[in-house]
């Protein structure tokens, strides 16, 4: 799990671009994260099976990274 330091931006709203449940990751789009924000299933804050659905709005916190599978942003927590 990623350590949260308190320097992360406040949670924002975004739209799930894609999510592959078999691979356990996807991408969320929002103006604050140009190019998309990579999300791993372990960051989804829900009980039971953790999955996102494309074209659904979510709230998420994020951090800037050098490279996460080709993305410059990574989700810290996602609330479906």
TrEMBL record:
Pfam families reported for this sequence: CSD
Domain CSD: 11-80
Molecular functions per Gene Ontology: nucleic acid binding
Record-given protein name: Cold shock domain-containing protein
Species the sequence originates in: Candidatus Frankia alpina
């Amino acid at each position: 799990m990623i350590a949260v330091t308190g320097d992360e931006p406040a949670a924002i709203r975004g739209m799930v671009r894609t999510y592959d449940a078999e691979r356990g990751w996807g991408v969320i789009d929002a103006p604050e994260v140009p190019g998309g924000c990579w999300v791993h299933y372990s960051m989804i804050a829900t009980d039971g099976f953790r999955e996102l659905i494309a074209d659904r709005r979510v709230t998420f916190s994020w951090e800037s990274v050098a490279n996460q599978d080709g993305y410059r942003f990574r989700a810290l927590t996602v609330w479906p």
